Amino acid sequence: MRLLIVGPQGAGKGTQASLLAEHLGIPHISTGDIFRANVGAGTELGVLAKTYMDAGDLVPDEVTVAMVAARFDEPDAGRGFLLDGFPRTVPQADKLGEILIERGEDVDKVILLEVPDEILLERMLARGRADDTAEAISRRLELYHTETKPLLDFYAGKLVEIDGVGEIDEVQQRILTALGH
Ligand code: AMP
User: What is the predicted pLDDT for the residue at 124?
Assistant: First the structure.
């Protein structure tokens, strides 16, 4: 199964994606996690990504797309994947489509995790990640509205809308039910 998970920052995408991927036996591929691992290890990619991440801006597409394509070439991605944090823009979705066509693959479903703004803000403040400054939070929220939301039309026929408010297990169960598991 080839899945995407989309939602604003603080919606619980990472938590839900990791549980779901484990349940389905597919890799959880989070572009944010890969960037953070590179920042932590001080790689060239990490040094480049860090300035964008600290500002809440998007890392340039040529870097991000190449990183995702390379990840797909690892053997565990042959069984499918759950992509978290990519694509975040319509141009990235176009690129993903091209990469998958070359592989004879396609996206099966797109999970949209919905949480109202006031709850998002509470969760963001509790999370305390290095790039959770007030400026970066508001920049990511702005980018979600302008750049990521158009993806919902792009993937209209594949969208699975999930209420992301509730306990972790409860939300996970909603996702599994919606996917027919
Ligand atoms: P996340 O963990 O998904 O919130 O991502 C953290 C940061 O990594 C973002 O604020 C961006 O700077 C960068 N990032 C993650 N995914 C992408 C992407 N698909 N395109 C560009 N930048 C990304």
Answer: 87
pLDDT in tens, 13-57: 999 999 999 999 999 999 999 999 999 999 999 999 999 999 999
Return the bridge partners of 50, or none. none
Identify the three-state secondary structure at position 3: strand
* CA 166 vs CA 31, 34, 113, 174: distances in Å: 25, 28, 12, 10
pLDDT tens-digit series, residues 84-130 = 999 999 999 999 999 999 999 999 999 999 999 888 888 888 888 88
Contact residues of ligand 1, CB 6 A cut-off: 9, 31-32, 35, 52-53, 56-59, 64, 85-86, 88, 92, 140
Q: Which atom of ligand 1 is nearest to the CA of 33?
A: 2
Which two three-digit tokens encode residue 50? 């860090």
Cα of 56 vs centre of ligand 1, distance in Å, is 8
Maximum CA pair distance of the chain? 42
Q: Is 29 helix (H, G, I), strand (E, B) or coil?
A: strand
